[in-house]
Specification:
single chain, alpha+beta
Length: 180
Protein backbone atom coordinates (compact mmCIF):
# COMPACT_ATOMS: atom_id res chain seq x y z
CA UNK A 1 0.00 0.00 0.00
CA UNK A 2 1.23 3.50 -0.89
CA UNK A 3 -0.32 6.69 0.49
CA UNK A 4 0.50 10.20 -0.72
CA UNK A 5 -0.86 13.62 -1.50
CA UNK A 6 -0.91 14.48 -5.18
CA UNK A 7 0.01 18.07 -6.00
CA UNK A 8 -0.41 20.30 -9.02
CA UNK A 9 3.34 19.99 -9.62
CA UNK A 10 3.02 16.19 -9.86
CA UNK A 11 0.39 16.46 -12.58
CA UNK A 12 2.35 19.21 -14.35
CA UNK A 13 5.39 16.90 -14.38
CA UNK A 14 3.30 14.17 -16.01
CA UNK A 15 1.82 16.54 -18.61
CA UNK A 16 5.27 17.84 -19.52
CA UNK A 17 6.74 14.32 -19.70
CA UNK A 18 3.81 13.08 -21.80
CA UNK A 19 4.10 16.03 -24.20
CA UNK A 20 7.82 15.40 -24.60
CA UNK A 21 7.42 11.64 -25.06
CA UNK A 22 4.65 12.03 -27.64
CA UNK A 23 6.51 14.66 -29.66
CA UNK A 24 3.86 17.31 -28.97
CA UNK A 25 6.14 19.43 -26.82
CA UNK A 26 8.16 21.09 -29.59
CA UNK A 27 5.19 22.29 -31.69
CA UNK A 28 3.34 23.36 -28.54
CA UNK A 29 6.41 25.19 -27.24
CA UNK A 30 6.89 26.94 -30.61
CA UNK A 31 3.22 27.97 -30.69
CA UNK A 32 3.35 29.35 -27.14
CA UNK A 33 6.60 31.16 -27.94
CA UNK A 34 4.89 32.92 -30.85
CA UNK A 35 1.81 33.75 -28.75
CA UNK A 36 4.06 35.12 -26.00
CA UNK A 37 5.92 37.31 -28.51
CA UNK A 38 2.63 38.69 -29.85
CA UNK A 39 1.36 39.43 -26.35
CA UNK A 40 4.55 41.12 -25.13
CA UNK A 41 5.02 43.05 -28.39
CA UNK A 42 1.36 44.11 -28.32
CA UNK A 43 1.67 45.28 -24.73
CA UNK A 44 4.78 47.30 -25.60
CA UNK A 45 2.96 48.85 -28.56
CA UNK A 46 -0.06 49.78 -26.41
CA UNK A 47 2.16 51.33 -23.74
CA UNK A 48 4.04 53.38 -26.34
CA UNK A 49 0.78 54.39 -28.02
CA UNK A 50 -0.67 55.59 -24.71
CA UNK A 51 2.45 57.54 -23.77
CA UNK A 52 3.62 58.90 -27.12
CA UNK A 53 0.82 58.86 -29.71
CA UNK A 54 -2.36 59.47 -27.76
CA UNK A 55 -1.35 62.89 -26.34
CA UNK A 56 -0.58 64.14 -29.86
CA UNK A 57 -3.88 62.78 -31.16
CA UNK A 58 -5.81 64.47 -28.37
CA UNK A 59 -3.98 67.73 -29.09
CA UNK A 60 -4.77 67.30 -32.82
CA UNK A 61 -1.11 67.39 -33.76
CA UNK A 62 -1.58 64.77 -36.44
CA UNK A 63 1.91 64.98 -38.00
CA UNK A 64 3.54 64.32 -34.62
CA UNK A 65 0.92 61.64 -33.83
CA UNK A 66 1.82 59.85 -37.09
CA UNK A 67 5.52 59.92 -36.24
CA UNK A 68 4.84 58.74 -32.69
CA UNK A 69 2.61 55.94 -34.06
CA UNK A 70 5.46 54.76 -36.31
CA UNK A 71 7.79 54.72 -33.30
CA UNK A 72 5.16 52.83 -31.27
CA UNK A 73 4.83 50.17 -33.98
CA UNK A 74 8.60 49.81 -34.29
CA UNK A 75 9.04 49.50 -30.52
CA UNK A 76 6.24 46.92 -30.31
CA UNK A 77 7.78 44.91 -33.15
CA UNK A 78 11.27 45.11 -31.62
CA UNK A 79 10.06 44.03 -28.18
CA UNK A 80 7.99 41.22 -29.73
CA UNK A 81 11.02 40.00 -31.71
CA UNK A 82 13.20 40.20 -28.60
CA UNK A 83 10.63 38.17 -26.62
CA UNK A 84 10.36 35.63 -29.44
CA UNK A 85 14.14 35.14 -29.24
CA UNK A 86 14.06 34.70 -25.45
CA UNK A 87 10.81 32.75 -25.22
CA UNK A 88 10.19 33.45 -21.53
CA UNK A 89 6.56 34.49 -21.92
CA UNK A 90 5.90 31.38 -24.03
CA UNK A 91 7.40 29.15 -21.35
CA UNK A 92 5.26 30.87 -18.74
CA UNK A 93 2.13 30.41 -20.88
CA UNK A 94 2.90 26.72 -21.41
CA UNK A 95 3.49 26.12 -17.69
CA UNK A 96 0.29 28.03 -16.88
CA UNK A 97 -1.66 25.81 -19.29
CA UNK A 98 -0.34 22.66 -17.61
CA UNK A 99 -1.02 24.07 -14.13
CA UNK A 100 -4.60 25.05 -14.99
CA UNK A 101 -5.41 21.58 -16.28
CA UNK A 102 -3.78 20.01 -13.21
CA UNK A 103 -5.77 22.21 -10.81
CA UNK A 104 -9.03 21.25 -12.51
CA UNK A 105 -8.14 17.55 -12.33
CA UNK A 106 -7.30 17.76 -8.62
CA UNK A 107 -10.50 19.67 -7.88
CA UNK A 108 -12.45 16.81 -9.44
CA UNK A 109 -10.64 13.95 -7.73
CA UNK A 110 -9.09 15.38 -4.57
CA UNK A 111 -5.45 15.27 -3.58
CA UNK A 112 -5.09 12.32 -1.22
CA UNK A 113 -4.34 8.96 -2.79
CA UNK A 114 -3.94 5.40 -1.55
CA UNK A 115 -2.83 2.65 -3.92
CA UNK A 116 -3.27 -1.01 -3.09
CA UNK A 117 -2.22 -4.07 -5.09
CA UNK A 118 -4.09 -7.33 -5.02
CA UNK A 119 -4.42 -10.44 -7.18
CA UNK A 120 -6.84 -8.69 -9.56
CA UNK A 121 -4.89 -5.47 -10.12
CA UNK A 122 -4.41 -2.01 -8.69
CA UNK A 123 -6.97 -0.13 -6.59
CA UNK A 124 -6.72 3.64 -6.37
CA UNK A 125 -8.58 5.39 -3.56
CA UNK A 126 -8.90 9.14 -4.15
CA UNK A 127 -11.02 10.93 -1.60
CA UNK A 128 -14.41 9.17 -1.68
CA UNK A 129 -13.76 7.68 -5.11
CA UNK A 130 -12.37 4.24 -5.69
CA UNK A 131 -11.07 2.90 -9.00
CA UNK A 132 -9.95 -0.64 -9.68
CA UNK A 133 -7.57 -1.18 -12.59
CA UNK A 134 -7.21 -4.84 -13.64
CA UNK A 135 -3.73 -6.07 -14.52
CA UNK A 136 -4.74 -6.32 -18.18
CA UNK A 137 -5.36 -2.54 -18.36
CA UNK A 138 -1.92 -1.57 -17.04
CA UNK A 139 0.09 -1.15 -20.21
CA UNK A 140 3.43 0.11 -18.88
CA UNK A 141 5.29 1.69 -15.99
CA UNK A 142 7.58 4.67 -16.59
CA UNK A 143 10.02 5.87 -13.94
CA UNK A 144 11.58 9.33 -13.69
CA UNK A 145 13.74 10.77 -10.95
CA UNK A 146 10.74 12.24 -9.13
CA UNK A 147 7.72 10.19 -10.29
CA UNK A 148 6.37 6.86 -11.44
CA UNK A 149 3.70 6.87 -14.16
CA UNK A 150 1.45 3.78 -14.29
CA UNK A 151 -0.12 3.86 -17.74
CA UNK A 152 -3.65 2.56 -18.24
CA UNK A 153 -3.97 3.86 -21.80
CA UNK A 154 -1.93 5.59 -24.48
CA UNK A 155 -2.01 8.96 -22.72
CA UNK A 156 -3.61 8.17 -19.34
CA UNK A 157 -1.59 7.30 -16.27
CA UNK A 158 -1.71 7.33 -12.51
CA UNK A 159 1.02 9.59 -11.13
CA UNK A 160 2.92 8.39 -8.08
CA UNK A 161 5.47 10.78 -6.58
CA UNK A 162 8.67 9.19 -5.28
CA UNK A 163 8.40 11.30 -2.14
CA UNK A 164 5.76 8.75 -1.00
CA UNK A 165 8.68 6.71 0.31
CA UNK A 166 10.17 3.25 -0.04
CA UNK A 167 6.79 1.65 -0.71
CA UNK A 168 6.97 3.16 -4.20
CA UNK A 169 10.01 1.00 -5.03
CA UNK A 170 8.16 -2.12 -3.87
CA UNK A 171 5.08 -1.12 -5.86
CA UNK A 172 7.13 -0.61 -9.03
CA UNK A 173 8.87 -3.97 -8.58
CA UNK A 174 5.53 -5.74 -8.19
CA UNK A 175 4.04 -3.91 -11.19
CA UNK A 176 7.03 -4.75 -13.36
CA UNK A 177 6.92 -8.42 -12.38
CA UNK A 178 3.21 -8.59 -13.32
CA UNK A 179 3.82 -6.86 -16.66
CA UNK A 180 6.74 -9.09 -17.63
Amino acid sequence: MVEFTLTVDDLVAFAAWQAKASGEEDPRRARMRLVGAWLVGGAAYLAMFAVATLPFLLSRLLELAGAAELVSVLVGAAVGWWEWQRGRAGEWLLARRYRTKARVALEQTGTTRRLELDEDGLTILAGRRSTHVPWSRISRVVETDDHVFVYTGPDAAHVIPRRAGGAVTDLVATLRSRLA
